[in-house]
Amino acid sequence: MRIRRLQGGFTLLELMVVIAIISIIASLSAPSFVRQIAKAKLVEAQNIATQHQAIVEEFILINGVFPSSTQFDLLKRSLTHDSIVKSISVNDNNGVTGHIVISLNADTGVDDGQYFDYQRDSAQNWQCTSDLEQALLPGHCQENTE
Fold it and tell me: CA 33, 38, 43, 44: dihedral to nearest 10 degrees?
């Protein structure tokens, strides 16, 4: 009587096909994955912008004018060394209007020096523009076309 021995495992060809399929899926999803990582990191910049908008609003409420660069430097929060935000500044301040500019560090999907520009108008509305690509911009922010 002959005993047949079943061999388990996969052939080399089957393993190569599976690896090829996984490679194709990974190459198709990688750009989307990188974009999602960049968007998640930009949430930090959005939170910092919101905090500083509140600081400016409080300053305007107390003093009646948009803070100067010197005044803003005394009020702004310090950044952590690993923050995506490189710097925060104000400019073009005139009465109760002005800009908060948030400059970004190089990170996944973001180049060094790219920015968010939050402009406050006399009706107390904030508009956001940025030089980031459209796919990375939050819904309330517009791409700067200049």
Answer: 130
Residues 56 and 95: beta-carbon distance below 8 Å: no
Edge-to-edge strands, sheet with 85-94 = 85-94, 97-104, 115-120, 126-130, 141-143
Q: CA 108, 113, 118: angle at the middle one, nearest 5? A: 100
CA torsion through residues 101, 106, 112, 114, sign: negative
Model confidence, pTM: 0.75
> By C-alpha distance, which of 49, 51, 55 is closest to 71?
55
In whole angstroms, what is the distance from residue 87 CA to residue 58 CA? 21
pLDDT tens-place string over residues 2-26:
666 666 778 899 999 999 999 999 8
Owner of token pair 């495992």? 9
What letter would DSSP give residue 42?
A: H
Is residue 57 classed as helix, strand or coil in its secondary structure? helix
